[in-house]
Amino acid sequence: MNSGSADSPLPADAWLALDQQLCFALYSASLAMTKRYRPLLDALGLTYPQYLVMLVLWERDGQGVGELGERLSLDSGTLTPLLRRLEEAGLLERRRSRDDERRVTVVLSTAGQALKARAGEIPRQIAASTGCSLDELAALRGQLARLRAALLQSPPGP
Description:
Structural class: mainly alpha
Mean pLDDT: 92
Order of helices and strands: HHEHHEEHHH
CATH class of one domain: Mainly Alpha
Number of helices: 7
Distance between the termini: 26 Å
CATH architecture of one domain: Orthogonal Bundle
Number of strands: 3
Shape: globular
CATH superfamily of one domain: Winged helix-like DNA-binding domain superfamily/Winged helix DNA-binding domain
Largest sheet: 3 strands, antiparallel
């Protein structure tokens, strides 16, 4: 007799197996992805989180710190040190608004803009290393975006 839920062919104990955990599949894939990025980003002098900040700024320069945080799902306590290190590296500038001193705008420096050309091959190299077609990668991104949205909308707790 199956002791799992009505919509599951797995027995209840099988749900606790590590290989059945979606969270572990996502976590281990994320670790593998970050490991694959490391040598490519080392050549640019960037960490993976710094690369994500640069991607957002290459899309649209001159964003506020709050906008960057929202786009990257990072709080200011995590984002501020990233921005400080990128500024120290000469890749961006943080500018206080003249109208509202609480508002800080992040602007790419000339060096930060130039780095975009050097980073241009990274997405192709990563895509090639996955062994997936571009259509498969697009479908996977879509599934992960839907998963993230569903998780953010679901109520917390049991």
